[in-house]
Design a protein that fits this description.
The chain has about 375 residues and is of the alpha/beta class. The chain folds into 2 domains: about 5-175 and about 370-385, Glycogen Phosphorylase B (Rossmann fold), CATH 3.40.50.2000; about 190-365, Rossmann fold (3-Layer(aba) Sandwich). It is about 45% helix and about 15% strand. The chain contains 15 helices and 13 strands. The strands form 2 sheets. The protein has a 7-stranded parallel beta sheet with strand order 3-2-1-4-5-6-7, sandwiched between helices. Helix 10 (about 245-255) links the parallel strand 9 (about 235-240) and strand 10. The radius of gyration is 21 Å and the shape is globular. The N and C termini lie close together (about 10 Å).
Length: about 375
């Protein structure tokens, strides 16, 4: 069986789901899969670095609904091109990167050609959709017609069965993973820390898009309390997004500009160095309206580098760690108890080291991409059978 993966989000575009698909599908035999990825800046240069069977299509839609002429036109154009690719590649089944818009594209293709499809769900994609009646209608049609729904966490699977009435036997859980060869522990390096502007500071790191549910704002508000017991603390924030100005305003209001660093979106090498050289990784995520953290791949990347992690008690983050041994989950809707938990771990070097060693062992055993690719292959085979 040959699969056609549809994913607008795919490297070089940043995003956890795109990285997930790259790591899994790049490990499958070339003759078994073709990828229809979104076209984006830098894709020509990126595609010159690999030999995946990949086609770039204009999968970005201005309107995800179908009520408007523009929405229908966008879907028809995308489906027409996908149909041509499916025929030329003799693909038997479609894998949708998201329920919207890729799931609707696959649904249209099924109506036209009878091609079966399966669909990935990431958590926040279905929880935020309830704000739109049209999106709810489309998602229900996709979920009803897909052969299997692949959830990125048990938390997402529970949302699908409890809130969307998807039959339990139609849902499979497949966790994202981490490249344990790329993200690996290294000794503290003064030269690297100096280059990063960290030097002898106690560094707390967050990696994630600058948006409310990621919780960077609450950790910024917690810094004043943390520095009472950890005077040399530095909060380093990696990521881009619409909340940069909002977060900078909080930094100014709190008077903590000396204790907060915005690094933007670094290249892969610098990202790995930040994980390796930080003292503690925190993803202070929370539920913001209907928006949740479906899983949290960055928590795996930090643990792979031998760092203990703290995450918010929302969504599927607890599934990334061995609770209390490699990480801690706490409410992050307010600066407390975040401030106390971060300060206590920063002050306990021995505990952080012990947790970091356990974290590395945990992700190598449970989340290495090579082993997850085998699980994915077994899942695909069981669906195709």
């Amino acid at each position: 069986m040959k699969s056609l993966l549809l994913s607008e989000i795919f490297p070089p575009t940043h995003g956890g789901s795109g990285r997930w698909f790259w790591e899994i599908y790049s490990r499958l035999p070339r003759e078994r899969v073709v990828v229809a990825a979104g076209d984006t800046a830098g894709d020509v240069e990126f595609d010159a670095t690999h030999d995946m069977n990949l086609a770039r299509l204009p999968l970005s839609l201005e309107h995800w609904g179908v009520k408007s002429f523009a929405g229908l036109k966008g879907y028809w154009k995308a489906i027409s091109q996908i149909k041509k690719l499916k025929r030329s590649e003799a693909a038997d089944v479609v894998h949708c990167g998201r329920v919207l818009p890729e799931g609707v594209m696959a649904l249209g293709l099924k109506y036209l050609t009878g091609t079966p499809f399966l669909c990935y769900v990431h958590g926040e994609d279905v929880t935020t959709a309830v704000e739109s009646r049209e999106y709810v209608f489309l998602i229900r049609r996709v979920l009803k017609n897909t052969k299997v729904v692949i959830a990125n966490s048990q938390n997402t699977a529970d949302i699908l069965t409890n809130q969307w009435n998807v039959p339990v036997d139609k849902v499979r859980v497949l966790h994202p993973g981490v490249d344990t060869k790329r993200f690996t522990p290294v000794p503290a390096c003064q030269e690297t820390r100096q280059r990063l502007g960290w030097e002898d500071r106690k560094v707390v790191l967050t990696v994630g898009r600058l948006q409310r549910r990621k919780g960077q704002d609450q950790l910024i508000r917690a810094i004043s309390k943390i520095r009472e017991s950890v005077p040399n603390v530095l909060y380093s924030i990696i990521g881009g997004g619409n909340d940069r100005e909002y977060l900078e305003q909080i930094v100014a209001e709190e008077g903590v500009s000396e204790y907060v660093q915005f690094r933007g979106e670094p290249d892969d090498s610098e990202l790995a160095s930040c994980y390796q050289q930080c003292d503690l990784f925190v993803l202070p995520n929370r539920q913001e309206g209907n928006d949740i953290e479906g899983f949290g791949m960055v928590l795996l990347e930090a643990q792979a580098c031998g760092k203990p992690v703290i995450a918010g008690a929302s969504g599927g983050t607890r599934e990334t760690m061995k609770l209390s041994e490699t990480g801690v989950v706490i409410p992050c809707d307010t600066p407390s108890p975040l401030d106390e938990t971060v300060a206590n771990l920063l002050l306990d070097d021995a505990k952080r080291e012990q947790m970091g060693l356990a974290a590395r062992e945990w992700v190598v055993e449970q989340f290495d991409w090579d082993s997850l690719a085998v699980k994915a292959t077994e899942l695909f085979d069981s669906v195709d059978a």
